[in-house]
Design goal:
The chain is mainly β and 169 residues long. 8% of the residues lie in helices and 49% in strands. It has one domain: Mutm (Fpg) Protein, Chain: A, domain 2 (Sandwich), CATH 2.60.270. The strands form two sheets. The chain has a six-stranded mixed β-sheet with strand order 3-4-1-10-9-8, with no helix packed on it. The chain has a four-stranded antiparallel β-sheet with strand order 2-5-6-7. A hairpin with a 5-residue loop joins strand 8 (134-138) and strand 9 (144-152).
């Protein structure tokens, strides 16, 4: 499998509003990832891909609302031996970084599809609200490895979100 490089982008001025989150999802698996659902706490999707092709990448756009761009997507994929997996990818890029110095955040949760679908948007938001701008998760049985980074774009009122999903066993 070819490696994919993620380029880090520079920081913008703290009080510059963010127009949108431009997300890229890299699917480093042997199968397509299919959208289960999405959610917006602030902002709205202008484009959301389904499916994400295996060993490929696709992009989405989430436009800002009054409080910035804060949303989530949930994708599923089959397993070779067990029940299907699902992955939650959630992010928060606050408008005007209100309160001041509030960081961009990204949260990932992965596991069996039934478990992920039982999670509430409230519990996902609570985890997102204490998350960092970078996350790496290896699902407890070691079969899924995921990571994501959200950055502010230099001299541009936007955020970029790069996420990678791998099945490692």
């Amino acid at each position: 499998m070819a490696s994919v490089q993620v380029q880090r982008v520079g920081e913008q001025t703290v009080n510059q509003p963010q127009d949108a989150t431009y997300g890229t999802i890299f699917n480093h698996t042997w199968t397509n990832m299919n959208l289960i659902t999405s959610h917006s706490w602030s902002g709205s999707f202008t484009f959301l891909p389904d499916p994400i092709p295996y060993n490929g990448a696709t992009q989405f756009v989430h436009r800002k609302g009054d409080q910035g761009t804060k949303g989530a997507v949930v994708y599923t994929m089959p397993s070779r031996t067990e029940e299907p997996y699902a992955i939650v990818l959630a992010w928060d890029a606050p408008a005007n970084h209100n309160p001041p110095n509030s960081p961009n955040r990204v949260y990932i949760e992965c596991g069996p599809r039934d478990y992920i679908e039982s999670q509430t948007w409230y519990s996902i938001q609570r985890n997102l609200d204490i998350a960092n701008p970078t996350v790496e998760v290896i699902e407890e049985d070691g079969k899924i490895k995921t990571n994501a980074t959200i950055n502010r774009m230099a001299n541009n009122p936007a955020a970029t979100l790069n996420s990678h999903f791998r099945i490692i066993s």
